[in-house]
Amino acid sequence: MKTLLATILMVVFSVGFHAQNRLETAKKTAAENKELILLNFSGSDWCVPCIKLHKNIIETEDFKKLQADHVILYLNADFPRNKKNQLSAELKKENAALADQYNPKGLFPYTLLLNADGKVLKTWEGLPSENALAFSNEIRSVKEN
User: Fold this and answer.
1) Distance CA 108, CA 53 (A)
2) For residue 71, what are the domain limits?
3) How many domains does the chain have?
4) What three-state secondary structure class fits 26?
5) What pLDDT does residue 4 have?
6) How would DSSP label each residue in 30-94?
7) Are 141 and 35 in contact (CB under 8 A)?
8) CA 19/CA 93 separation, integer angstroms
9) CA–CA distance, 96 with 93 (Å, rounded to integer)
10) Spans of the chain, pLDDT less than 70
11) Residue in 67, 18, 61, 68 with CA at minimum distance from that of residue 38
């Protein structure tokens, strides 16, 4: 009986704590690996600068090397509008909580570089003017300092 009650309580509490699960997991992993967290707010199917950011920076080899070299963990808080691209209710809730905490003005794209505690180290409003290599080098520079 105690095992059943404990299991039920764990399920109930895990549902309540899931709203920040990706960020909390990223913080833990970033702390363990001495990485930074890059959090990007995007509208993947309606925001033209967001689409360009992903195509010209996020999807490039220079950016992917940041992840492979354990410089950053990448989190995307997406807010698609098209019905076919809708996220699960759970992910929508999590992205909304991230927006409440880090993007209260509702800017798109909006990119933040965070330390493992979630402290904002740098922000980019809109599409960064740098190319992928310069953007990646800027992130590496912040990590080194």
Assistant:
1) 10
2) 2-144
3) 1
4) helix
5) 45
6) HHHHT-EEEEEEE-TTT-HHHHHHIIIIITSHHHHHHHHTTSEEEEEEE---SGGGPPPHHHHHH
7) no
8) 6
9) 5
10) 1-20
11) 67
Tell me if 63 sits within 8 A of 135, measured CB to CB.
Answer: yes
pLDDT at 73: 97
Residue 13, domain CATH: 3.40.30.10
Interstrand relation of 36-42 and 72-78 (parallel, antiparallel or unpaired): parallel
Q: How far is CA 127 from CA 49, 90, 109, 142, in A?
A: 6, 28, 6, 19
Unique residue bearing structure tokens 């492979």: 68
Could you tell me which residues come within 8 angstroms of residue 107 by beta carbon, excluding any fewer than 6 positions away?
41, 125, 126
Rounded (5°) CA angle 82-87-28: 140
The tokens describing 19, both together, are 């709203």
Residue with tokens 């959090």: 39
